[in-house]
Amino acid sequence: GDEALDMLAEAVGSTGRGLHIHAAEDSYDSSFSHHLYGMGLIERLEKFNLLNDRTICAHGVHLTDPDIERLNSHNCFLVHNARSNMNNGVGYNEKLSAFRNVALGTDGIGSDMFEEMKFAYFKHRDGGGNYGPSDFLRFLHRGNGMLECNFSRKFGNIEKDSCADLVIYDYQYPTPLVDDNIAGHFVFGLSSRDVKTVIINGIFVYEDRKFPFDIKPIYEEASRAALRLWQRIDDIK
After folding, report:
1. Could you tell me which residue ranges the Amidohydrolase-related domain spans (predicted)?
2. Could you give the dihedral angle defined by the CA atoms of residues 55, 125, 107 and 93, in that order, rounded to the nearest 10 degrees?
3. How far apart are CA 182 and CA 179, in angstroms?
4. In CA terms, which of 23, 57, 135, 206 is 20 to 30 Å from 102?
5. According to CATH, where is 2.30.40.10 located in the chain?
């Protein structure tokens, strides 16, 4: 309700952080907001000063043109989650071209951004969209801009003062790899299996296809945590 948005506005204002919200994922989200508050989702967020260049709006499948204009006027980010939208059967965001800042996300459907980019591209083409591989590579890269706005650091470039985040690939390309077709290789060729080494902030977290720590206990604890969660859900039922 309004009290919660007041609290969020205070938190955003006092910390300088941005709001991350899943909005208009289902058509019911928008109709519920109009029914209960007499205005749309994005209009309510704007009313409480929750829209700025650090705002991350996930999904946005059922946002209206005025909603999109509001997001754009505040330089907000729309994070497109193609696989999650498909899995939940909530529809397809046919207005990607109307958003100023589009990035890609998974919404928890795995963590493979290669797969997310491919699904987003193919779903777009299947829906009659005219964006090409380079557009979706741009969306993938724009995630760095989203990070910069929220963490006040430079991401996505190999230059002085940028975060030393690097991914090294071992990719056997079947056709020449040149500037003009690198986006096509990302969509049709490259995948997570080609990742050889990952460096985060100058630290090797994955080298020569091996983690520098034992991952078995992590998977075991994840399995136990899942069982506890399932039990809690069953108890609620």
Report:
1. 2-202
2. 50
3. 6
4. 206
5. 161-237
In the chain, where does the domain assigned CATH 3.20.20.140 lie? 1-153
**What is the assigned CATH class of domain 1-153?**
alpha beta
Q: pLDDT tier at 237 (50, 70, 90 boundaries)? A: confident
| CATH of segment(s) 161-237 | 2.30.40.10
Question: Is the separation of the CB atoms in 96 and 33 below 8 Å?
Answer: no
pLDDT in tens, 17-28: 899 999 999 999
Residue type, position 147, single letter = L
CA-based torsion, 171, 166, 196, 191: positive or negative: negative
Give backbone dihedrals phi and psi of 79, rounded to 5 degrees, phi first.
-100, 115
Cα–Cα distance for residue pair 120/108, rounded to 1 Å: 15
